[in-house]
Amino acid sequence: MDLFLTALSGLAWTIVYIDAIRIGFRQKTYAMPVAALGLNIAWESTYSVLDFTGGAVSVQAWVNLIWALADVVIVFTFFKFGRAELPRLVTKPMFIVWGVLIFASSYAVQWLFIGEFGQMAGARYSAFLQNLLMSGLFIAMLVARRGIRGQTLTIAISKWIGTLAPTILIGVMGNMPFIIAIGIMCSVFDLVYIGLVWRALRHPEAFADAAPAATTSAQAAPTQAGATP
Fold first, then answer.
1. How far, in Å, CA of 77 to CA of 27, rounded?
2. Best CA proximity match to 187, nearest among 151, 143, 135, 139
3. Cβ contact 126:182 at 8 Å
4. pLDDT tens-place string over residues 4-13
5. How far apart, in Å, are the Cα atoms of 194 and each of 75, 108, 180, 198, 200?
6. pLDDT value at position 207?
């Protein structure tokens, strides 16, 4: 059962990354919120190195390596296409500095978790907390983009399964109430996101730009003859 849930999580998240890369290049955007992307690549690359240099190599170590390599490509799409998502006042140098700062901070956060909780607990706590953040950020990205540009139902469903599997493995089977609670919250947000993506696919007009604010009756009324405008 442990191997099945580990493989299920690995497969589900790999599907997320592959589809994120596909839709990112196809629609010329990045398909993962940048804060989540920064934490992801920091987590996966950090624990890949620790796993492969720490003795016996587990299935999860190979999964982490595959994820980290996929993250590199998604990071590329962020730096290639992400500038277009921002106002013109954000220059290209400002965008690059902002991106580098986010990724550097993400690595710092991961290493602080290891320093505070140790490698095993740090990996679990940071993984589930950043998954909770990611679940909320995907909803925010859909709302900010007013539609599913850079997003797919495949990503939404696979992301949910990819977090649900380790919630069962580590939280339920490992008897860790904290992980169970965070995992449940992740599922709630993920299911909401799936529902929103489904609605956006069926009714894209519901996520279209808001209509201009209606003019007031005073502004709309014609100016009386001889009145000062």
1. 10
2. 135
3. no
4. 998 899 899 9
5. 24, 31, 21, 6, 10
6. 81
Is residue 196 within 8 Å of residue 142, measured between CB atoms? Answer: yes
| Of 117, 145, 142, the residue nearest 129 (C-alpha) | 117
Q: Is the pLDDT reported for residue 191 higher than 70?
A: yes
Distance CA 100, CA 75 (A): 11
Residue 222 lies in a domain: no
Does residue 103 lie within any of the structural domains?
A: yes
pLDDT of amino acid 3? 84
> Comparing C-alpha atoms, which of 20, 118, 9 is closest to residue 72?
20
What is the pTM (predicted TM-score) of this model? 0.86
Q: Which two structure tokens, joined as six digits, stand for 13?
A: 């998240």
At residue 79, what is the residue type? F
Q: Is residue 162 included in any domain, yes or no?
A: yes
pLDDT at 219: 43
Tokens of 90: 């954000």
**Which of 72, 90, 82, 68 lies closest to 27, judged by CA?**
82
Three-state DSSP state, 212: coil
Query: What is the Cα–Cα distance from 15 to 55, expressed in whole angstroms?
Result: 28
Residue 52 contacts residue 61 (beta carbons within 8 Å): yes
**Total domains, the chain:** 1
Asked whether residue 7 is assigned to any structural domain, the reply reads: no
When the pLDDT of each residue in the chain is averaged and rounded to a whole number, the result is 89
| Domain range enclosing 170 | 17-208
Q: How far is CA 212 from CA 200, 209, 219, in A?
A: 21, 9, 14
Q: What is the pLDDT of residues 195-211, one digit of tens each?
A: 999 999 998 888 876 54
